[in-house]
Amino acid sequence: GVRTPFGKAGEKGIYAQTRADDLVIKCIRELLRRNPDLPKERIEEVAIAATTQIGDQGLTIGRLAALLSGLPNTTPGYSVDRMCAGAMTAVTNVAGAIAFGSIDVAIAGGVEHMGRHPMGEGMDPNPRIIAEKVVDPSALVMGSTAENLHDRYPQLTKARSDAYAVNSQAKLAAAYAAGKIQPDLVPVATRHAEKGWGLATTDEPPRPGTTMAELAGLKTPFRPHGNVTAGNAAGLNDGADSPVALIGRGGGLRLDGIELGNSVTVVGARKATGYGLEVAASIGREVAAAGLNVISGLALGIDGAVHRGALERGPTVAVLGCGADRPYPASHSRLYRQVVESGLVISEVPPGADAWRWSFPARNRIMAALSAMTVVVEAAWRSGSLITAEMASDAGRDVGAVPGPVTAGAAAGTNELLANGAALIRGGQDVLDRMLGAGAGQPLFGPAIEDFEVELLEAVEAGCRTVDEAALMLEREVGEVATALARLEVRGYLRASTIGTWTRTSLATYPSGGE
Asked: pLDDT for 110-131, tens place per residue?
């Protein structure tokens, strides 16, 4: 038997722009090359397994691969759709046919290209699966299922799983060193629109030299203080694992309109500061104005501010940990309706499903996988937003963070991200520069204002936070300043607090006629 080298999913993986059926064709052709004494006419069946039979994995991939591999057009073929052990099922199927005597020679195998076709793409699972309690809601998330197995078999501790993973890495490295893997591999020429041509000759996912200490420090994204990590689980595409299906509800966007190149995820703390809320809203506003999809989780704090800012200029996407038909949290019911009306709400769990503790870490991996960049606005040391950032980084996505005061606990996580190499994000323009190229976006201008109002904005930016401070600095009457501040708030240039202080928004002013 032969196989192609295994590659990581995502835009940075070796097969990012290689078709799934071409990988199958390469294997069949190599089998024919290695068996020159076998006439092609003797091959009587081709059975190929592919779980998500859509696109380049659809239209009876066994038959199409046989034709494109050079087999006679009289050679039949079929596909097997089975989650887990699909290729083994294809092998046992043709073996049974040979044993029965209906055929003598067949080719069987399987393909999985989850970077191009996430498991369950295009599916619409029946909501009765959850409503009638056929399965637990967590069964729809493979990582949560793994955590449930740890619960059922407590002797399978995280330490044992980590040790098994370290030993597996060591065994594979030893097998490569001994030349035991290479004979089965089929080199594959790859092509990328930006990177050009390449040649895949070895498996991409393995990490030889992995240690127990390294695995012990990994996050457990499916459950706080859980057992399953990216180090002791099978490497699945675009994150720790891919959802069985994504269910969407909305009138402004379609699921198939969300692509890496046109989407940005913005997340942050629920207990956000006024500074964080303003920055989040401005990023959502500017990114949406540039025509990009703004993705967040509809949670309190930063998420809500991001969605509201984006809705001022365009649609937004909310990823929920409950069913897409249920607003969560309930206090965001109005915001939920606005997102549904002009944007899109998506979830991997069926309609009607409640939110569970495991839902939110699982939801985070979807947000990280949907976009080319994840931005964290505010995050404390143990914030779930840092998990999202880590997942995005592991998937090869760009990660950015908004800086905050070094003395502020709400900014401890984001400042740490910046110290570790995350992109510095000062506003929406920085996001657009990284997504679309330098200078791609334009400042958002508000309505024209008078010269005195421009001076007042400059005073606020210089540190004047109250009416009295601004009046003193500009040498104006308190009443006049108070009226002007109120006008600037209505026009979107300032934000007033409940204690009578004023802060500047990101809205730019039109240059005066003399400039």
From this structure: 888 877 776 666 667 777 876 7
